[in-house]
Specification:
By secondary structure, the protein is mainly beta.
């Protein structure tokens, strides 16, 4: 008897009018279990991941990783988003061996576990350039601090309520220590970390708790030779009524400790896509060999890194001119991008542009999205300095944008300042000024699907049209398992240009695989992949999963804000 037949048999028992469901519910559940055992099948669920520990590793190494979650069948298979990273299930349940190629690009990569029943959610795995070391308990007190050799990345966990991790480092006068935590930012560990640098006898010298969102970072200028302590503890990311240090199995972090190069941002923050493009690196302890760095001109976002840097940096690639400072030598022709800096408190930068009546201009300033401190305010002024338009951040720690339609041909000024009047070395932003470009995006509601043989699966797709885009979009599915077909369902009645339905079908069970949904247009020729939300990580993915004959687990409940 097949799995589906087991289900029908159980359903028939519950729906029978002979039995009182309230009286015999327990009996039926027991018999259902027995029936499934006799069938040789079970109501089993796909793998589910709650954490990876450690959550990353150095390029060119192999890392043994513990996976938290539920796995009704083991071993499982592992899919990774980059061919430079391969992962295999070990003999022991919940253990993976992850091999990172020496040429893997540093940064966040993704993996998921899968078997014949389906796949887990995607989980981040961070590739770094520095050696890794595991945090070791007991290290809660300064007298029991774990000795660390620099530079390194500590893979740690605040494993229980009240846990504190302390590390001992030897430093020399004049050095600059960078201590940076990645926990909530990339891994969405439920922790609001607090980081301290202490003297050898336990006095707090520096403290930080919110540098990168909820993740702390300290830049410590060493006053004299000696031993110093770095201490990390946390409160819950979602505040509760308790006033105590928090911890748990998912409180996983990566702590970078180095007196070597640590990148803060690229200069400029946008680069024109052309051969021989280079960017400078701003940060701490940056050696001449690590700046400037050559840029790969593929894609919309580029990543640069160097063996002498502890971390990579990302920036935009554009098809228009890009400047690394405010230009004062006359009106700039649209489109362009510029990297600006508010050097002192109260500063405002001005950019003169040429505008034409009736030709709309989209203006966007980004800083918070780049983990920089400017809360941007945009103003557009005419030649008499009269304000024509203004935009402020729509929410806390957000960037700003506005649409401007010049009322006449002429010269206009774009002014950028900080909402709170801030300024300083890190008050850097990226300004993009360009006509709105007709374009589209494809959005779907989930990244995992289950297709039953003989029962078509309909995937609703939302077509988000931008700047008056009105072209027809041809949608296809690529990378589907053998035997699975895909076709757009013809619209009935008046078609909604924002809605499409892609129907998948198969006649037999088969393998489960990653696939993508792709939309294409002609004149202009555009190709876009459908994105599904990864709500936990506040991002999206185009890596979709299809379980042919499997199941999709229920969505996790949303976290309370």
């Amino acid at each position: 008897m097949k799995h589906g037949q087991c289900r029908k048999a159980v359903d028939s028992v519950f729906s029978s009018s002979v039995f009182d469901p309230y009286c015999i519910r327990g009996f039926v559940l027991v018999m259902a279990s027995v029936l499934c055992v006799l069938c040789g099948e079970s109501f089993s669920a796909p793998p589910a991941i709650t954490y990876l520990y450690p959550a990353g590793g150095q390029r060119g190494t192999t890392v043994d990783v513990t996976v938290g979650g539920t796995f009704e069948r083991w071993p499982v298979q592992v899919w990774t988003s980059d061919k430079a990273i391969t992962a295999n299930a070990s003999k022991d349940k919940g253990k993976l061996s992850i091999a990172i190629a020496a040429d893997a690009v540093p940064g966040v990569h993704w993996l998921r576990l899968h078997d014949e029943q389906g796949a887990s959610t995607l989980r981040p795995f961070i590739v770094g350039t520095l050696p890794d070391v595991a945090e070791k308990e007991p290290n809660d007190e300064p007298t029991k601090a774990q000795t660390i050799k620099l530079p390194t990345v500590v893979n740690g966990r605040l494993e229980k309520a009240g846990d504190v991790d302390v590390f001992s480092v030897t430093l020399k006068k004049g050095e600059t220590l960078v201590a940076s935590v990645d926990a909530h930012r990339s891994l969405k560990s439920p922790m609001d970390g607090v980081l301290q640098v202490l003297s050898a006898d336990g006095f707090v010298l520096e403290q930080n708790n919110d540098w990168h969102g909820l993740d702390p970072q300290i830049i410590f200028n060493v006053p004299k030779d000696g031993t110093y302590l770095v201490r990390l503890f946390a409160f819950p990311a979602v505040a509760d009524a308790s006033i105590k240090l928090s911890g748990g199995e998912t409180y996983i972090y990566r702590l970078t400790l180095t007196t070597g190069g640590f990148a803060d941002y690229a200069m400029p923050l946008a680069v024109e896509r052309k051969a021989a493009a280079k960017v400078g690196i701003k940060g701490w302890n940056i050696s001449a060999a690590a700046r400037p760095l050559a840029v790969s001109v593929e894609g919309d976002v580029a990543t640069v890194f160097h063996p002498l840097l502890a971390n990579p940096v990302r920036f935009r690639l554009e098809n228009h001119p890009c400047w690394d400072a405010a230009r004062t030598d006359g009106p700039l022709a649209v489109p362009f991008s510029a990297t600006g800096q508010l050097t002192k408190a109260g500063d405002a930068n001005s950019f003169s542009i040429t505008g034409k009546k009736g030709q709309a201009i989209a203006i966007r300033v980004e800083s918070r999205a780049l983990e920089l401190p400017v809360n941007p305010v945009i103003r557009v002024l005419d030649t008499a300095k009269k304000q024509l338009a203004i935009a402020e951040p729509p929410d806390l720690n957000k960037d700003a944008e506005l649409a401007f339609n010049p009322p006449a041909d002429g010269t206009y000024t774009i002014e950028v300042r900080d909402l709170h009047g801030g300024g300083g070395p890190r008050f850097v932003y990226r300004l993009r000024v360009a006509p709105p470009e007709p374009d589209f995006e494809l959005m779907i509601t989930t990244d995992r699907f289950a297709l039953a043989p003989g029962k078509p699966l309909d995937i609703p797709i939302t077509v988000m049209r931008k700047a008056g885009f009105a072209r027809d979009v041809e949608v296809t599915a690529e990378g589907l398992p053998a035997g699975v077909s895909a076709a757009v369902v013809p619209a009935t009645g008046k078609a909604d240009p924002a809605k499409l339905t892609l129907r998948l079908a198969t006649e037999k069970a088969g393998p489960s695989e990653m696939f993508t949904i792709v939309g294409r247009t002609k004149e202009p020729s555009l190709t876009r992949t459908a994105k599904a939300p990864l709500a936990e990580f506040e991002t999206t993915t185009s890596h979709l999963w299809l379980a042919v004959g499997g199941e999709v687990p229920a969505a996790a409940p949303k976290k309370k804000k």
